[in-house]
Records
---
Amino acid sequence: MTGRFIRAAAAVALLALAACTSDSNFPDPTGKGTVRAFNAIKGSPSVLFKIEERTIETLSYKGSSAGARWDDFQYNFNFDTLIFGESAVRRIASVPLKVDATRDYTFVLTGELTSPTVTIWEADERTFDSADTVFEARFGHLSPVLGDVDVYFAADGTAPVLGEEIGSLGFGDVLAPIDIEAGDYVLTLTAADDPADVLYQSSIVSYAPRASVFLVAFEGDETDLAPTVVRRTNALGGVASLPDIRFPPTVRFIHASIDLPASDIYDDEMLTSLVLANHAFGDVSAPFEIVVGGNNFTYTAVGNNTATQFEGSVLAAAGTRNHFAVHGEDMAQVQLSYIPTLRSVSTVAQLQVIHLAVAHETLDFYVVDAGMPLGDESSQAQVLTYSFPSSVISLEAGSYDVYATVRGETTIVDGPLQIDVALGDVVEIIIFDTVDPTSAELRVTPAP
């Protein structure tokens, strides 16, 4: 099979190679302005944000670039992306802009990937004195499904009251910069003119003085449990996700130790709160709600909570989907806690493999067109290391056979397992042990 799939890392590398620098002859500048960008196209692959042909930043969905200062000249600001299956990056937007000294420009990419809308938010650059105790905040709205909102920003425990909002926002809007005393705040978004209809609420977040901060609402993607996620971005490009605190995290339990008997799972010290009963080898549970922060789990013999078989923990943030896998040999089981790859990318199907077969330290993993033999003309193998998730494999829509083989050989450990994928699909495969230590079993993780 040729040209049908590549690893995501290779796609990013191709984007990077496409970023070249060209020199221009400009007069002497009189000052500099600041430029950054946000990518608010849900389902988009990575997008290159460029000044002329020089890359400023690579932007994933909900991603932003650091504020970069450029001389006060006229430029073309370009947005490029790699459409999977195409041999070169594609220019999806180009916007001319005269940068003025001491001005701040934020490019916002919304709409459809192949014909995006580019909006520019403008303001004056903010400078602070060393004695200032305030920070500058700008509130933006980039979720096309959220509707018009009122913005409340107050101390914890302060209920939204009509008339006390910072301002109101529609999709694509940003409020004028506002100075706020440094401290701890909760951001709340409500339906316009209805403070009782809370659409989003952050946890308590600390804001330091003398900082310029964007707080921008995005539509949640498949990784998020909440419909709205806010990203906090500072002038240096530091980004923090502020999930909706009203949506607790979840966990799925994966039993991947062939030596561990079926277990009951408890989440309290007294072993009275039974989370999951009779969790047997090979099982992948439905999602269970857990608390924000640390979660401790005790595995006991089925029906006998005095016989502890395994103990582990998960540290979870609000609104996140977590996987908790127990794997390893008898009396030496360990846990693998991870957030699975779930975000859909509209231009490609994605596949990730979790190798949990302890009998095989390393394996080779192959993807070939369905019905084609595994041989010398097959695709390049990805090396899998026990207990580590693979890099993401990108696929065109279609049917494929996947194989695990002995490392460095085409001796089949398991396969073919056929998978059928459409653009936007995300598939996870877990490799389990079998009673035969020379083999293993490939299983597609069921949808939650």
Note: Residues 4 and 85 are 7 Å apart (CA to CA).
---
Amino acid sequence: MELRHFVRVIALIGVLALIGSACTSTASKESIPVLTEAASVDLQARTFMRACQDVLCVGTPMYASDETPAPVREAIKETFTDEVEYLSESSLEAIADTNGVFDSGGTLINVGNVHRTERSDVVGVDAWIARGLYNVVGRTYLWRWDGSVWVTTTPDAVDVTVTTAVS
């Protein structure tokens, strides 16, 4: 009888383990890919595009820092149909009018590196968007791993806190 009781207990533990594993989130750390340099560059270029879309920059001159790494520049060129001019800080000052606004309503977008968030399946990329020397907004754009690709998301959708800066 004791052996039969032991088998029942083991069977019950096995069933509970199966139920528990079926109820766990699919966003486990094991399912999140290692963030390679190529994936980071892709997310930076896609963040550039998201920032542009947020401020309706199409049809105006587009600028980025001349310190933007070459792989990010190439990725932006592949995904962004408009011409992006890479300028130094002094060049930006030269194209600004007396109020600090860039010529022809141009927009400067600089994207930072990809960084992890408090969720293992969500990363962020900071972008600084400027319409002039004194009109700058900093935003964090979020990307969530959906099991196969990084998709756009929002802080509310994934319950991740971000900070926005305005000057």
Note: Residues 1-30 have pLDDT under 50 and may be disordered.
